[in-house]
Structures are given as C-alpha cells and as structure tokens.
Design goal:
single chain; Aminopeptidase; 7-stranded mixed beta sheet; binds coenzyme A
Length: 169
C-alpha cells in the first residue's frame, strides 16, 4: 500500500486542490459553484488559511500525489461569527471509501482543537451518504434542511446543515 501523508497545505498544492475541486464543480451538486476555476483565481481563497488559526487547510497525499483536502473557513462574514467555522472536504474521484476522509478530518479537528474555533458547521446536499457518515462519525449532528437553496443541473437542491462543538486539546 502506498504511503499516506496528511499535512498542512503548501503553496505548491494550489493546482492539485483546484483540479480536485473542479471535478465536483463540473460533475456534482456537492458544491454550488457552477464554473470551473483556473488555479490563480483560487489564490485569494487558498491564501486565506494560516497554520495556527481557526481557518486551516489540510491535504492528503498518496505516493506523493495530493488525493484530497479538507478545510475550515469563515462561516459568515460578520465578526461575531469569528469563532464559528464551516468545514468542507473533497477527495479525488475514486479516492473515496478507504479512510482518506477520516484521516483528513482527524488532522483538521486535532488542529482546530488548539485554536479559537468553537463551533463547526457543514452543509451537505442530500443524498450524500459518504459525507453524512463522515460528518456523523466526527460528532456532527443534524440541524435542519434549507429546502431548495441551490439550483444546479436544471433543478433545485436542498442543503442539510450539521454542527459540532470543537473539542479543545
Ligand atoms: C465525503 C468524502 C470526503 C468521505 O471520505 P471517504 O474517504 O470516502 O470516507 P472514509 O473512507 O474515511 O469513511 C468515513 C465514513 O463514511 C462511510 N462511507 C464512505 N464511503 C461511503 C459511501 N459511498 N456510502 C456510504 N458510506 C460511506 C464509511 O463507511 C465511514 O463510515 P463509518 O465511520 O460509520 O464507518 C468522500 O467520499 C468525497 O470526497 N466525496 C465526494 C465529495 C463530497 O461529497 N464532499 C463532501 C461535501 S459536503
């Protein structure tokens, strides 16, 4: 089995992270972005993460190749939301179902336990049994459903929201 490494993202991961994300932009309702990105267009987002704050970006590599990423970002813009984060995770196609998601979220939430992050929220477009199982495994609990909040591929999609308290370590 190839060596698996989970680590903080580095500047040279931007292209690989964008390529993984673009797969879902083009083919999946899991994200509500509609048009694929050039990596440079994602640079401001990519540079919004810091290794010691509540907004962190991790990648997982196998055989030196980035196969997925997970991050915590701002939940909402207004400053009283500063201690709330939204977490998201994407693996390369065909990389699911063998623990990479669990490895990424383990690293992310271990890191977040040492930061000011207090609550984590995640929005999942049903049906997405893998994402729901992963989030529940990490202690996310369902909050409710935003009905028909997104429109993609010619139809409306619900968003099921989940939350968890960020344990401190
Ligand atoms: C969601 C995703 C990150 C999960 O990562 P993963 O590596 O496949 O998950 P893991 O192998 O670590 O397994 C985590 C849990 O999900 C379950 N799971 C994984 N794939 C599954 C599937 N296809 N159907 C049902 N459950 C699944 C596992 O059994 C495990 O559950 P358990 O902890 O109760 O045993 C990954 O499937 C993915 O990138 N999906 C496409 C993008 C996406 O939807 N991202 C989420 C946006 S909200």
């Amino acid at each position: 089995m190839s060596e698996r490494v989970v680590r903080q993202a580095r500047p040279d991961d931007l292209a690989a992270v964008t390529e993984i994300y673009n797969h879902y932009v083009i083919h999946s309702e899991a994200t509500f972005d509609l048009e694929p990105f050039e990596p440079e267009a994602r640079r401001p987002w990519f540079e919004s993460f810091a290794a010691d704050g509540p907004h962190q970006l991790f990648v997982v590599e196998e055989a030196g190749r980035v196969r997925g990423y997970a991050y915590s970002g701002r939940f909402r813009a207004k400053p009283a939301y500063d201690a709330s984060v939204e977490t998201t995770i994407y693996l390369a196609p065909n990389a699911g179902g063998r623990g990479l998601g669990t490895a990424l979220y383990s690293a992310l939430f271990t890191a977040l336990s040492k930061t000011s992050a207090h609550r984590a929220f995640a929005g999942i477009v049903p049906p997405n049994p893998a994402s729901e199982a992963l989030h529940r495994r990490f202690g996310f609990e369902p909050l409710g459903v935003f009905r028909e909040a997104g429109h993609k591929f010619g139809r409306y999609w619900d968003v099921a929201w989940f939350q968890k308290g960020v344990e401190k370590g």
